[in-house]
Amino acid sequence: MIKYPEKLFFVIGIITLLLSFLVFNQTLDIHIHDTYFIIDHRTLYRSLAFLAFFYGLLYKWTKTILFSPFLTWAHFILTIIAVFLIIIESSRNVYTQRSYGNDMWQNTEQWRTSQMRISTITFTLIAVQLTYFTNLVGGLIKKLSNWGNK
């Protein structure tokens, strides 16, 4: 059994990076208060791949310091679920095409629901990242308390 999932982060990063080459002419529209962000799917997928590679390297470098394999796996599983939910929801968001005529707000309720889902998933992804830092700080405290007892 794999104790730490750093290799799985690399695999997910490669898969997400390869997916970024398969999407064309799709964008993710995010409306936050009075600002409208338009993100290309290729940029979104490559950013998620970078996140996976980044955590793969962090786990590789800090696996001897980490507090709990359970927290490591919880972080991995919750991060992967959030990443795939972002990919799925952003792919479903294709029905909202930008138009600036009278029919601009035709799918308002669908668009609002989709924006709320994407915002919630993104917030969850950011919150889940605290699991890694909790694991790291717990491991450092454990190492320092063992070092002081020697």
What does this structure look like?
The chain has 150 residues and is mainly alpha-helical. It has 5 helices and 2 strands, in the order αββαααα. Strands 1-2 form a two-stranded antiparallel ribbon. It is elongated, with a radius of gyration of 19 Å.
Percent of residues in β-strands: 5-15%
User: Order of helices and strands, N to C?
Assistant: HEEHHHH
Percent of residues in helices comes to 55-70%
How large is the radius of gyration?
Answer: 19 Å
Largest sheet: 2 strands, antiparallel
Q: Indicate the structural class.
A: mainly alpha
Count the DSSP helices. Answer: 5
What's the overall geometry? elongated
Mean pLDDT: 81
> How widely separated are the two ends?
32 Å
| Number of E strands | 2
Residue ranges: pLDDT <50 for 5 or more in a row? none
The largest beta-sheet arranges its strands as 1-2
Give a short summary of the structure.
The protein has 150 residues and is mainly α. The protein is 68% helix and 8% strand. The longest helix has 24 residues, at 69-92.
